[in-house]
């Protein structure tokens, strides 16, 4: 971390790396002609900068596009769209030779150091490999450089003669760093560099990266699903959700005053030493939607604990979330009333067939499935909901869908928020910010599912 230096650069310098509208879509193809029938929008238009000497983190749940962002920004995979300026030049226009030079200046470190080592090659040879490729053939000079690099990463010169299988995971990641440093890079991109390591070792490796960054004046882009990792090492952080950056700012500001409900939810899920401190958000439920068919409006609206309530009704926020869950299940066609009837049937012997189960009983069961209390505190909302559930249990899903969509519409499902500056310093993309709504008071509730 290098707050002072970063701020200085931000005032006076140019970014070392500038990513603009970066997209990576994977085509989904079908048939022998590989006709494109859809796209996985793994990275869907992200912008960020990394300044010289700065550490920037990308954080988000698994599958949100972090690794794809890294590999497409250094063109391990060709980006679908966007530009990547490095030291003022657009690398997306580089030819092979220029890319080679660029890849020396930007070194990648991966989660699994194991896979990046040849088991038959000694540590010294592994570190020297890039140097040899570059034409450094003087053996004595090479040994000197290897010894120096090993010591800089906290190992000893004699470790050069050892083999990968003799090293622990943490030691291997140190060797990975030594090898990256042998190229004298300007920047290191590290994708989950400590995720495979024990927690105590994680912290050591991060401290080492911090130390190396200062000594070598490196820029670091670090990718992690783990907020604790980000907090330890990053000057700034970008929070990603489903291929987009939803919040971007100084790490201390983002942690102290998260502006996006997704960031709040991520922060709430960090275990803390104090059991009474449960953060200010609720834990996330539900799966990350598929990036091949991202939700309309705000991509987070299908899981957002703070999804904006429909006008004209008064819900408790957590109950409103569950009503939205019901709407989504209905939209995806997966409320199985027959299965619910079967369940009732197995619990009682007073009905001969599912057809004889009273709809009132089924209605109650549907509400229970979604944890929706009865009645809702707002009588008007209650009557809308009951009417919709009546339609559902009588098989008129389409009518229920339309009725709920009309009555319980939220801007979150139709409007796409954009990143905006916030009062606490960072940028975030949430309609609550655009509409000047305060963060929602979300009650801590324990979900039964
Ligand atoms: P993260 O690193 O955040 O866990 P990834 O960047 O690996 O996420 O993946 C983002 C999304 O892109 C995921 O839904 C993943 O399944 C999809 N994806 C990644 N690589 C490919 C590929 N080669 N073809 C199709 N989809 C891919
Ligand atoms: Mg990844």
From TrEMBL:
One of its GO terms (biological process) is peptide transport. Residues 17-267 form the ABC transporter domain. GO terms for molecular function: ATP binding; ATP hydrolysis activity. InterPro entries: AAA+_ATPase, ABC_transp_ATP-bind, ABC_transporter-like_ATP-bd, ABC_transporter-like_CS, Oligopep_ABC_C, P-loop_NTPase. Residues 414-449 are annotated as: Disordered. SMART domains: AAA. SUPFAM superfamilies: P-loop containing nucleoside triphosphate hydrolases. Keywords: ATP-binding, Nucleotide-binding, Transport. The keyword Nucleotide-binding applies. It holds the Pfam family ABC_tran. Gene3D superfamilies: P-loop containing nucleotide triphosphate hydrolases. Belongs to the ABC transporter superfamily. This is ABC-type transport system ATP-binding protein (Probable substrate dipeptide/oligopeptide). The gene is dppF8.
């Amino acid at each position: 971390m290098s707050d002072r230096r970063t701020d200085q650069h931000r005032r006076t310098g140019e970014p070392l790396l500038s990513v603009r509208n970066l997209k990576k879509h994977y085509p989904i193809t079908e048939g022998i002609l590989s006709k494109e029938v859809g796209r996985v929008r793994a990275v869907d238009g992200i912008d960020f900068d990394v300044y010289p000497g700065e550490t920037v983190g990308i954080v988000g749940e698994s599958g949100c596009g972090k690794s794809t962002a890294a590999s497409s920004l250094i063109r391990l995979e060709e980006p679908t769209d966007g530009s990547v300026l490095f030291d003022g030049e657009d690398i997306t226009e580089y030819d092979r030779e220029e890319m080679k030079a660029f890849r020396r200046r930007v070194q990648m470190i991966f989660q699994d150091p194991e896979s990046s080592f040849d088991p038959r090659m000694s540590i010294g040879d592994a570190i020297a490999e890039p140097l040899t490729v570059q034409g450094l053939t003087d053996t004595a000079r090479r040994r000197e450089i290897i010894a120096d690099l090993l010591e800089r990463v906290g190992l000893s010169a004699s470790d050069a003669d050892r083999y990968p299988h003799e090293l622990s995971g943490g030691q291997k990641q140190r060797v990975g760093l030594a090898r990256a440093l042998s190229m004298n890079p300007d920047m290191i991109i590290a994708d989950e560099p400590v995720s495979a390591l024990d927690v105590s070792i994680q912290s050591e490796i991060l401290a080492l990266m911090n130390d190396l960054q200062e000594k070598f004046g490196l820029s670091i882009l670090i990718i992690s699903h783990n907020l604790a990792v980000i907090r330890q090492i990053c000057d700034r952080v970008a929070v990603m959700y489903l291929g987009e950056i939803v919040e971007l700012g100084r790490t201390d500001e983002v942690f102290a005053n998260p502006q996006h409900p997704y960031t709040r939810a991520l922060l709430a899920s960090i275990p803390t030493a104090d059991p009474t401190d449960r953060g200010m958000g609720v834990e996330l439920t539900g799966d990350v939607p598929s990036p091949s068919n991202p939700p309309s409006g705000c991509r987070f609206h299908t899981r957002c604990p703070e999804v904006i309530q429909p006008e004209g009704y008064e819900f408790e926020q957590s109950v409103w979330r569950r009503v939205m869950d019901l709407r989504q299940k209905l939209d995806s066609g997966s409320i199985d009333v027959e299965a619910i009837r079967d369940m009732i049937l197995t619990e009682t012997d007073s009905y001969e067939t599912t057809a004889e189960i009273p709809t009132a009983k089924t209605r109650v069961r549907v509400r229970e499935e979604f944890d929706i209390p009865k009645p809702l505190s707002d009588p008007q909302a209650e009557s809308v909901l009951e009417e919709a559930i009546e339609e559902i249990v009588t098989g008129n899903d389409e009518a229920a869908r339309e009725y709920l969509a009309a009555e319980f519409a939220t801007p979150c499902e139709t409007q796409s928020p954009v990143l905006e500056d916030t009062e606490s310093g960072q940028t975030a993309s949430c309609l609550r910010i655009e509409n000047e709504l305060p963060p929602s008071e979300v009650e801590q509730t324990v979900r039964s599912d």
